[in-house]
Amino acid sequence: MTFAILGYGRFGQAFAGLLQQAGYPVRAFDPQARVPADLAAPSAAAAIDGAAWVVLAMPVPHLRAALRALRPQLHAGQTVLDVGSVKMHPCATMDELLGAAIPHAGTHPLFGPLSLARGEPLRTVVCPAAQHPQAAARAGALFRTLGCEVIEQDPESHDRAMAMTHALAFFIAKGLVDLGVDDGVPVAPPSFQGMKHMLAAVRGDAGHLFAAIQRENPFAAEARAQLLAELERVHRQLLADADGDSLAIPAPPA
User: Fold this and answer.
1) Which pLDDT score, from 0 to 100, does residue 200 have?
2) What whole-number distance in Å separates Cα of residue 93 and Cα of residue 80?
3) Which of 165, 176, 186, 242 has the fewest Cβ atoms within 10 angstroms?
């Protein structure tokens, strides 16, 4: 059961390693990256030839063009997965270009090279295509063999959740980094440790990911605007010398 990985950036490399550790044969192609000789295919067509799984691991903005080029070589005996951090646009693109003919599913592995290095628990979101529920079931089973907890979601619910979590985390981290706040600050209180972890995680992701998470998620702009409005409200409260009770951070619900 060979895997063709198209895109060998940070996640493509990490995913290839995870698959190999589980005993799966892997071929990879990426004209922009150096792929190890034992994995390298000379072309995308060569990578997918005979592969049971085709993993689209290129940057999300490049997915449509790549899938158009690949479509003539794909057949119904293969399962196509994307692994992007947003799901509505990639899933719609796969539905459009692959349709009923080629089994496919959207996936978002909620881990990366840093998570794997730390041995953190692994989770993956699977977004089934309406015409290919069995492809989603196979994808879920695959990720479970890799040690992942699998969460099934529709693409819109996924992107709404990611807008309020993933996109905001990257947005805050980008602002802190540009401000000069670094995860290597030698003197920091315990309250900064969680933020330090966030900065390290964001720095460990591919450079193109920030723009993709913000621009390809249709709900990210609204989430950023809501955050900025709320921060401005708190800022004005502080300037107005509001009483401590109104400024207190509420405890989590019981």
Assistant:
1) 76
2) 12
3) 186
Residues of the chain with pLDDT > 90, as a percent, come to 71
> Mean pLDDT across the stretch 13-40?
96
Tokens of 244: 């401590």
Specify the amino acid at residue 253: P
Domains and CATH numbers, the chain: 3-153 (3.40.50.720), 157-243 (1.10.3660)
Distance spanning both ends of the chain, measured CA to CA:
47
Name the token pair of 83: 């692994």
Q: Read off the pLDDT of residues 85-133 as tens digits, 9 standing for 90 and up.
A: 999 999 999 999 999 999 999 999 999 887 888 888 999 999 999 999 9
- 189-214 burial, b for 16+ CB within 10 Å, e for fewer? eeeeeebeebbebbeebeeebbebbb
**Phi, psi (rounded to 5 degrees) for 196:** -60, -40
Q: What pLDDT, on a 0 to 100 scale, did the predictor assign at position 179?
A: 85
**pLDDT the model gives residue 207:** 64
Give the tokens for residue 49.
Answer: 């030839």
CA–CA distance, 213 with 167 (Å, rounded to integer): 6
Q: What angle do CA 150, 151, 157 make, to 5 degrees?
A: 155
